[in-house]
Amino acid sequence: ISSFISSQVAAIFGTALITIIPAVQYSGIIDPVSSLQGMGAYIGQIYPATYFVTIARGTFSKALNFNDLATSFIPLLIAIPVLTGMTVAFLKKQAA
């Protein structure tokens, strides 16, 4: 966000809008991802927070072990290099 917006305060608010609000709406915190329809269902399936919520609920509420949650870790492991690559690609070079 800060690569596209010049003000730090605006970047903080932009980050909240782009990350926190969709994470709450589409990750299954309020409504199950299986009940979402259309574009909301697609966003819920590709958003990494969905898999984090599954891992957190499985770990703390259901006492599931790593093998039970392994399929939820795969999307998170894919998201790490993708988001890091996007960050490097969009980062503006600073003068020395």
UniProtKB/TrEMBL annotation:
- Residues crossing the lipid bilayer are 9-29, 69-91
Looking at the keywords, is Membrane present?
Answer: yes
Provide the alphabetized UniProt keywords.
Membrane, Transmembrane, Transmembrane helix
Top-level taxon: Bacteria
* Name of the protein in question: ABC-2 type transport system permease protein
Q: Which organism is it from?
A: Rhizobium subbaraonis
| Organism ancestry | Bacteria, Pseudomonadati, Pseudomonadota, Alphaproteobacteria, Hyphomicrobiales
